[in-house]
Amino acid sequence: MSRQDIAARAEDLRRQLHEHIYRYYVLNAPVITDGEYDALFHELAAIEAKHPELQTPDSPTQRVSSDLQTDLPKVEHTAPILSLGNAFGADDVRGWRERIGRLLPENFALDYVVEPKFDGLTVVLTYTDGLLTLGATRGNGDIGDEITPNVRTIHTVPLRIPVSPDGPPAPRRLVVRGEVLFLKQDFEELNRRMAEEGQPLFVNARNTASGALKQKDARVTASRPLTMYCYAIVDADGNVPGTQWGTLDYLRRLGFLTADGVIRQFDDLEAMIAYVEGFEDRRHDLPYEIDGLVIKVNDHVIYDDLGVVGKDPRGAIAFKFPAEEVSTTLLDVVANVGRTGVLTPTAVLEPVFVSGVTVRQASLHNYDLIEEKDIRIGDTVIVKRSGEVIPYVVGPVIAARTGDERTIQPPETCPACDSPVERDEDEVAYYCTNPACPERVARNIEYFVSRGAMDIEGLGERGVRLLLSEGLIHDEADLFTLAAETLLPLEGFAEKKVQNLLTSVQAAKERPLARLLGALGIRGVGTTVAGMLVQQYHTLDALATATVEDLEAIEGLGPHTADAVVEWFATPRNRALIDKFRAAGVRLAEELGTEKTASNALAGLTFVLTGMLPTLQRNEAKALIEKHGGKVTGSVSRKTSYVIVGEAPGSKLAKAQQLGVSLLDEDGLLAMIGDTP
Ligand code: IVH
């Protein structure tokens, strides 16, 4: 090949690679495989290695940075990089419109553009004759850090514009503003990699993005998969659109990534307000984190005329959603004992206000996760409360450590009864092994009286605890011998309430056997399995004689459940309980029921299971969902309809929270099926 041919080939490869990078990262529509891409890339890299003079600054090989050390020189911005005023609700937006209205001719109509308020870092890109020549942070608005080699590693940042030959010509100089961030899935992937390498996990995407951008060694930046969305032209030498809507379109056509799908144009204030208010529920569906939306006056002449107060342009305002992540101090970790004996670590926090409520406790999910994230007592931790989800501890802020923090160990004995704690080999959960553990007993009775179980009205958690502490009940069966004389002196047990309670207790004696069986808290035996067992055995006494093999022969009943049933009936305490039920006149036999016909209640829905469900084993839950037309898959994606969360859930919960997938507990699932025994 002649030198000229080689130069032409290099040029051709660069063009092809730019096109493929753009298709892959911006359009999300690659037309070649990764392998084919790599081949092109390596061919170009080989040519450049042999003929360094053919290497150009916009070559895709320059994204993978050289070992050049940048010592972050400062750059002066050509125009001030302004900030934004905030609105925290519809009235603030109306107030803003009124304020700017006073500066405009009377009854002046305005167009607005609404954009996501990306939770990332402002970066300013300068293109000279179409070539990326400078990348800078916002800094103080006038002077920023120069981070050109670092931004070059970001695949959504074009090295040359227009990226596509069909794009509009670039002005001689163009200064573009945007936000650098981690897509949620990229951040998760990065943390998976860190975990694999045994390194501490990153806690906060925004801080991690900031750290990655300011690396002195751009190779480190390159190893962190950042994304950049662009939304403004700060300065230009040449013709650029006169509206915000036009600007976004222009940036998109030049090859920048813009927030398509979210950005909207409005000419009606109230319609715009309805959109921004309604967006809060949708924020979790986006692939990136936002902390609100930005409302901008569309017309740039009016926008500029409105001027600036302090550092905030009057022509735009940020509509902020409540913060979902805050930091606070982890004061202690206590183990909560569940009905089945599972010990769930719970964080005791310095109270903190997040998403509109004060949070004092948060879930830590399980002890493995605590170790993985290296969470310690005394740590400053990030707490997240997102949507309906129970607040949870995202992770520690390692940089805030003083050295006085204490590591957290799973308890060796049950905090409620001091019995030894055990761990199942194939599960992350630790269990209290004592079936008579007072906390387990209390939880079991609470469950026994609850709506889905024996449905005894007028007794909640507090009532149950009171009856236990007064020594009026010791187990579920004692509920059936409660008498008015002993209840009436108790605080909160007025005449009427006692009446209702006793009536309800009487009614509960007649509940179908499957209901009683499901209410006993046998691991794996919920409403559905209880129904299956009753259909086979008809009486509790007959069931008590069943062997593991007998039970395993029942279709849809797993070995874990079979074991649990046999073990439950073999426990003297439980045999005594049955005798007490019998003595109290509780129904222990059942007529043969008709088989429940499967429904299509879950047709078209996809479920993922995580953690231990209170009554259903995993395979039982799966069978149940499938029986009702639903699908169960192993991993959470945006296509997942619901994640069913049990005790001690794994990383699937975090993933679901990140993707904004709806969560359900077992009761929620059963309710969807309309499952009653
Ligand atoms: S416009 C002069 N648009 O929010 C206009 N800013 O709280 C000011 N931000 O520092 C910026 N998404 O880093 C604008 N779509 C968006 C934005 C956005 C995120 C950030 C930006 C700014 C901060 C102000």
Account of the 3D structure:
- This protein is α+β, with helices and mostly antiparallel strands and 677 residues long.
- 36% of the residues lie in helices and 20% in strands.
- The protein has 24 helices and 26 strands.
- Helix 1 runs antiparallel to helix 2 (34-50).
- Residues 65-69 and 592-597 have low confidence and may be disordered.
- The chain binds 2-(butylsulfanyl)adenosine.
- 2-(butylsulfanyl)adenosine binds at residues 82-84, 115-118, 122, 179, 231-232, 294, 313, 316, 318.
- 2-(butylsulfanyl)adenosine (IVH) binds next to strand 3, strand 8 and strand 13.
Map the helices and strands.
Elements: H1 3-26, H2 34-50, E1 74-76, E2 85-87, H3 90-102, E3 112-118, E4 121-128, E5 131-137, E6 143-145, H4 148-152, E7 173-181, H5 184-196, H6 205-213, H7 218-222, E8 227-237, H8 244-254, E9 264-266, H9 269-278, E10 290-297, H10 300-306, E11 308-309, E12 312-313, E13 316-320, E14 325-337, E15 342-354, E16 357-363, H11 367-373, E17 376-377, E18 380-384, E19 392-396, E20 406-407, E21 421-423, E22 430-432, H12 438-449, H13 461-469, H14 484-487, H15 495-509, H16 513-519, H17 527-537, H18 540-544, H19 548-552, H20 559-570, H21 572-584, E23 606-610, H22 618-627, E24 631-632, E25 642-645, H23 651-659, E26 662-664, H24 666-673
Parallel strand pairs: 2-13, 23-24, 23-25, 25-26
Antiparallel strand pairs: 1-6, 3-9, 3-10, 4-5, 4-7, 7-8, 10-13, 11-12, 14-15, 14-18, 15-16, 15-22, 17-20, 18-19, 21-22
The chain binds 2-(butylsulfanyl)adenosine.
